[in-house]
Every structure is written in structure tokens, then in C-alpha cells.
Amino acid sequence: MNTLIFFQTAFAGRRLATLGFLWLVMITVAALAAPLIAPFDPLEIDPVGRLAEPGWPNLFGTDHFGRDTFSRAVYGARMTVIIGTGSVAVALLAGGLIGMISAYFTRLGHFLMRCVDVLMAFPALLMALALITLLERSVFNTILVIGIVYATTTARILYGMTLKLRGEVFVDAAVCSGAGHFSILFRHILPNLVSPLLVQASFIFAFAQLQAAALDFLGLGLPPEVPSWGNMLSEERIYVTRAPWLLIYPGMLIVLSVFSMNLVGDALRDSIDPRFKDDIAGV
Amino acid sequence: MLAYTAKRLLTLIPTLLAASILVFLFVHLIPGDPAAILLGDTATPEEVAQLSAEMGFDRPLYVQYFIWLGNVLQGDLGTSIFFRQPVLSVIGSGAETSILLASMTMIWIILIGLPIGILSATKQGTWIDQITSSGAMLAASIPTFWLGLYLIMIFSVTLGWFPSSGFPSLSDHGGITNLRYLLLPSLTLAAPNAALIVRLVRASMLDVSREDHVRTARAKGLHPTRVAIKHIFRNALIAVAAAFGFTFAALISEAVVTETVFSLPGIGRLVVQSILRRDYPVIQGVILVIVVLYMVVNLAVDLAYARLDPRVSLK
Fold first, then answer.
1. CA-based nearest residue in chain B for residue A123
2. Contact A37, A30 (CB under 8 A)
3. Distance linking the first and last C-alpha atoms of chain A
4. Do A262 and B142 lie within an 8 Å CB cutoff?
5. What ipTM goes with this model?
6. Which residues of A touch B272 (CB under 8 A)?
7. Is residue A2 part of a domain?
8. Testing the interface with B: which of A126, A233, A253, A260 to mutate, by most B Cβ within 10 A?
9. Owning domain of residue A176
10. What residues pair up with B79 in beta bridges, in sequence order?
11. How far is B298 from chain A (nearest CA, A)?
12. Which residue of A has its CA nearest to B248?
């Protein structure tokens, strides 16, 4: 219920952010119902119908294998949601735990946060590239790599926010009533961090899309056969003059989704607890 | 200030050492004999045995680390498998392109980001503000390689104004005019970063404008432009300067992509090609160089920040 009110106040009077939210809902529906929406098999090759212009029945045209671009774009939405939620989950779970524990157990925390500092000395994409060198190209590994990269910033942010809450009276009260460490961290402190975590999640989701697309473009992201928007751009870029639609549609889809996620994050950030506002850096 | 500088320098050393351990371990995390990995598939067993003995790969890991660190401190980052050249000179050959690209990008970021940010903040709440700040967010949402491909399409293929790829050195034929090769890449790279600076300048100017000294300046009847520039913008710049470390990291990351799109012979493209070629010594060397550079830049930013805002070093 609280979360619902939080969302209502965040989007009240913000038309662009509401549109962004609706777009994300559409993407999620497309991802869930991809087999029902896509008119063709995204992997089916048709050598005769190569590079067909957008029209009927190929709404977005076909690529150089004769695969239907619209169907691939619909299945691409599925990859977008999987990569986004996966990276957010890894980043929030790993980073969140490290951050919260560090702020609570100060001595251990001092050590853990120094480790985070060291990891943060590696620029994001460079760290992703270094990790990808050690792993194979797969959906899981892409999620893992992007998740780890953003776990460091998440740890830093949650560390700061937990530190602020630790000094609050309600935490002292919980300690006095004999609550254990686990209960204080997860039953008393964590519920106060839900809305800032949602904001952080939306920004990670947006960044993760850009990073995943960049990795796909460099040929170091998802396996080439996986229909993701990044892979579609990467594979078809040499046909840019012959078949411009092959780059327009997936590119626009990425831009719209990242933009929507940023708008949603921005709207949510403006309505969270003012104490935490400066902790979260988005766009 | 001196004490603060010394303190920051001292905290840099352990972080630098820890980062170097991670970079060192990189080669050891790849499954297989590290000597064979460093020499590539074409190496003979004798060569592998020789490197193994040189680097002490049969000795405990910490001994190997100190041997490696000793070599690194003497400027020996190993030998590239692909180029058969010292890693440092391979990296050096990409340095000119990358440094020029980064410098041109920085100029664009300042020329585009600062004025639009000031405009957005001074016109807060108007349609100008709405367009510029949503526009900035949109620009930050565009994948750099996609933007680059379209700039090539429009300005190189259709209009033929600028070359679409490559970069001959400034010392080659053409001299300073060769910089035109970097115009589209630097604009591509600048777009998302200038957008972030626009948002940042706007946010910190709005923060400063709520402070007492600004109210006093307005109350004594100063011209609004003068208040905006001398009293608000100057103070807001402190927060912007602090963000330049972050911008530098973003530049490095996105340069990898931009250099690949425009086929520029820089360090970014070198990393990608080395990963695809499994040229591990080069990957390791580039990571090390960039991490050290990034730390130095961050230190410089922190010190500049402390100089601009003396309250920082007193904390």
C-alpha cells in the first residue's frame, strides 16, 4: 500500500514520466507474451526474402538472413527485461548486502568498503570487459558481469544510507527491546530503504541496457544467435546504407526504453525521503 | 592544504597496491598454465619453460607478484602475443589518438554542457528548462555506437563532409588538419557526457541559488545575470569540477566503443581487439595503465576540489 502511494505521488503531474512508465509496461507485456505477439519465428531464416523493406507482413522489414525484424524486436524485449532485472537483482543483492553489513558492523565494514573502493578504481565498461575475458559469452554471464559492475556503486550508496539510519532513535529502541542483528538490519532498517532502492534499481536498469548493448556491439555480450536489440544493431550495421530500417527500429527501442527508465527513476527520486536524495546519482 | 595533499597521497598507495594485485591475478584466473597463456598458442614448450622460469611461475603466488611488480615498476609490462612487441610500446602507439580524442571531447563537453546547463537553471520551470533538461536526459539515453553510426551515415556517407574512419597521426601528411578525423568521434563521445554535465550544472546551480549569500546579492539590487554568473555559477562549478573524475571514467569506457565504431587506432580499440585475439599481456597492461591513470585523475580532481572549496580539507 505504501509503495502504491509512493508511486502515485511520484507520477502525479509528470506526463513524460507517466508515458515512460506506460512504455515500460508495454515492453514487459511484449516480453511476457512474445510468442503470442510475434507473427514469425525470430530465428527462422528465409534466403529469398532477405532485406525486405518494412511493410506487410514484415512490419519492420527483414534482416540479411531474411528473419522478421519485428518478431526479433519483440523477442528482444524479452532479453531487455531479463538482462535488466537480472543485473538489478545481482547489483542490489550483492551490493546491498555488502553496503548494509558494512555500515552495521563497522570494523568489518571498514575493510569491505576499502575493497569496494579498489573495485571502483576500474571504470565500468573496462571492468566488464576484463570479467568477460575470463568468461564465455552467455546470457547468465552478461547479467553477472553487469550486475557486479553496478554492485560496487550500490554498496557505496547503501553504506551511506544505512549509516544515516543507524543513528536513528527507532534503531536504538529496537536494540533496547532486545532485537538481534539480523532483525535490526532486515526488519527495522531495510523497510526504510525500499523506496530509495527502487530509485537505484531504475537507474541500474537503464545503465544496464546501455552497457549490454555496448557489449553486444563489441561482440563480447550475448551469444550472436540471441535476438537482443544490441545484437540486432551489431549484426546489421554493415547494411546501414542498403537497409536503414534494420538500425532504426532496434536503436529507437533501446533509446526509448533507457529514456523511460531514466524518467521513471528521476520521478521516483524526487518523491523519496529527502535525506537520501543526494545519495543516489542518476542521470 | 599540504596536510590534506599528504593524506590523500598516502591513502592512494594501498588502493593502488590492491588494484595492482587484482590486475596481476587477472592472468592467473584464466584456466591453464599462465606462461602458456602469456605466450599464446604458437609458443614452443621450450619458450614456455623459459618464461615460466623468468617469471617464477613455479614459485609461490606472492613471490610471483613481487617479480611482476618489480618488472612493472621498471616499465616492463610483458610482450604482446600478437604484435611480438613490448606491451608498453603497443599501448604507446595508441596513446596519441586516445589523448587527442579525450581532449577534443572534453572541449565539446565544456562548450556544450556548461552554457546549456546555465540556461536551464536560470530559466527554471519554463519551457526552455523543460526542453533542455528532458533533452539532456534523452541524449544520455542514446547508445554511443548508434549515434556514431548515424553521424557517419549523415556527415560522411551522405554529405561527405568528414572522413568516416581512421586517424593518421598529426606528424603524418596533413598535420593539424588531421584533427578533422576526430570531429565526429569526439562529438559522439561528448553527447552523453555533456548531457550529464547539463543536468549537474542545473542541479547544483539550483542548490546554490537557495543559499543566503545569493539572497543578499539579490536584495542589494545586483543585476540577475550578474547574480547568476558571479554568485551562483561560480559556486556551482565546485560540484561540477568534482564530477570530472566521473566524466573521465565514462570517457574511457565509452571511448572503447567510439574508437571501434570509427576504427580509430586508439587504446580503446586495442583492448577490444586484444580480447578477441586473446592477447592477454596487452589486456592486462591496458587495464593497469588505465586504472593508474584514473586514480591519478581522481586525486587531481580531489585536490582541485579542496583548493576550490577549503571546507573540504578541514573535515
1. B249
2. yes
3. 28
4. no
5. 0.85
6. 129, 218-220
7. no
8. A126
9. 13-276
10. B86
11. 9
12. A123
C-beta separation of B118 from B136 below 8 A: no
Contact between A220 and B272 using a beta-carbon 8 Å cutoff: yes
Residue A181 · residue A108 · CB < 8 Å: no
CA distance B300 to B8: 10
Q: What is the pLDDT along chain A (283 residues), one digit of tens a residue?
A: 577 787 778 888 788 889 999 999 999 998 898 888 878 788 777 777 777 777 777 777 777 777 888 888 899 999 999 999 999 999 999 999 999 999 989 889 889 998 998 888 888 888 888 888 888 889 999 999 999 999 999 999 999 889 888 888 898 899 899 888 888 888 888 888 888 888 899 999 999 999 999 999 988 888 888 889 988 888 888 887 777 788 888 899 999 999 999 999 988 888 787 777 777 766 5
The answer to whether residue A183 sits within a structural domain is: yes
Residue of B nearest to A265 (CA): B137
| Helix H or strand E encompassing B142 | none
Q: How many CB atoms lie within 10 A of CB A33?
A: 13
CB burial of A58-95 (b: ≥16 within 10 Å; e: otherwise) equals: bebbbbbebbbbbbbbbbbbbbbbbbbbbbbebbbebb
Q: Which of residues 185-204 of B touch A (CB under 8 A)?
A: 195-196, 199
What pTM was computed for the model? 0.87
Domain-embedded: residue A3: no
Interchain proximity B19–A217, CB inside 8 Å = no
- The minimal CB distance from B260 to the residues A115, A218, A254 is found for A218
Chain A residue with minimal CA distance to B274? A133
Residues β-bridged to residue A68: A62
Contact B257 A219 (CB under 8 A): no
Chain B residues within 8 A of A210 when measuring between CB atoms: 141, 143
Is B192:A214 a contact under the CB 8 Å cutoff? Answer: no
Q: What is the dihedral of CA B66, B72, B73, B76, to 10 degrees?
A: 130
Residue A61 is assigned to a structural domain of this protein: yes
Q: Mark yes or no for CB contact B260/A126 under 8 Å.
A: no
Chain A CB contacts of B145 below 8 Å: 213-214, 217, 233
Q: For chain A, what is the domain count? A: 1
CB contact under 8 A, A117 and B29: no
CATH code at position A219:
1.10.3720.10
- The CATH number fitting domain B95-308, selected from 3.60.21.10, 2.60.120.200, 2.60.40.3950, 1.10.3720.10: 1.10.3720.10
| CB < 8 Å to A270, chain B | none
Contact in structure between A204 and A87 (CB atoms under 8 Å) = yes
* Grid cell digits, residue B121: 537553471
> Does A126 contact B271 at a Cβ distance shorter than 8 Å?
yes
Q: How many CB atoms lie within 10 A of CB B151?
A: 20
Q: Which helix (H) or strand (E) holds B140?
A: helix B127-140
**Residue from A210, A216, A231, A266 to probe the interface with B (highest B Cβ count within 10 Å):** A210
Contact assessment for residue B47 and residue B81, using Cβ atoms and an 8 Å cutoff: no
Q: How many Å is the Cα radius of gyration of chain A?
A: 21
- The residues spanned by each domain of chain B are 2-73, 95-308
